[in-house]
């Protein structure tokens, strides 16, 4: 039986042929002889590095973990124990940090409110949410004063 290449070329002894085929419109192509030494692109062997081929075969998609082997024990990673000096240097999250965050958030809201107030002065119309925000301005200023005093 004749061998068939990736490009569909049939080799019979020393001769190589492209077999005849039927076109989409129903007509037939003649079989054609292939010159000696011609290698179509489909049959050209590409260079491949053995390390790259090995990594392609064993690779998993990004982010995927290796499948666990049933019955295998997991290795426990020993965490270094903290020294006494490092324990002293660590401070629990203080209330000061939360106050700073609140102050920063209040200042941002007040900036937005002043922008809305300036729009009102210029005569631009605001929607209901923007009017509600402007009304909250006084209470936000008082709250900011209380936090900054403490």
From TrEMBL:
An example Gene Ontology cellular component term from the record?
cytoplasm
A single GO BP term for this record reads:
exon-exon junction complex disassembly
Compositional bias, Basic and acidic residues, is annotated for 139-150
Single GO molecular function: RNA binding
Q: Which InterPro entries match?
A: PYM1, WIBG_mago-bd, WIBG_N_sf
Region annotation (Disordered) maps to 1-35, 52-101, 128-150
* Low complexity: compositionally biased ranges: 61-71
Mind telling me which Pfam families this protein's record contains?
Answer: Mago-bind
Q: Which residues form the WIBG Mago-binding domain?
A: 14-40
Please name the SMART domains in this protein's record. Mago-bind
In Swiss-Prot or TrEMBL terms, this protein is called WIBG Mago-binding domain-containing protein
Organism field: Parasitella parasitica
Record lineage: Eukaryota, Fungi, Fungi incertae sedis, Mucoromycota, Mucoromycotina
């Amino acid at each position: 039986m004749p061998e068939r290449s990736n490009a569909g070329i049939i080799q019979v002894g020393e001769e190589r042929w492209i077999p005849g085929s039927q076109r989409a419109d129903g007509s037939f192509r003649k079989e054609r002889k292939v010159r000696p030494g011609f290698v179509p692109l489909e049959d050209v062997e590409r260079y491949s590095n053995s390390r790259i081929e090995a990594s392609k075969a064993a690779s998993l998609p990004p982010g995927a973990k290796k499948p666990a082997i049933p019955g295998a024990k997991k290795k426990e990673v020993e965490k270094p124990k903290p020294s006494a000096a490092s324990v002293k240097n660590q401070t629990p999250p203080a209330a000061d940090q939360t106050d700073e965050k609140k102050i920063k958030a209040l200042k941002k809201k007040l900036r937005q409110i002043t922008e809305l107030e300036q729009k009102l002065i210029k005569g631009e119309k605001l929607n209901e949410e923007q009017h509600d925000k402007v009304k909250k301005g006084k209470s936000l200023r008082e709250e900011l004063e209380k936090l900054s005093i403490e």
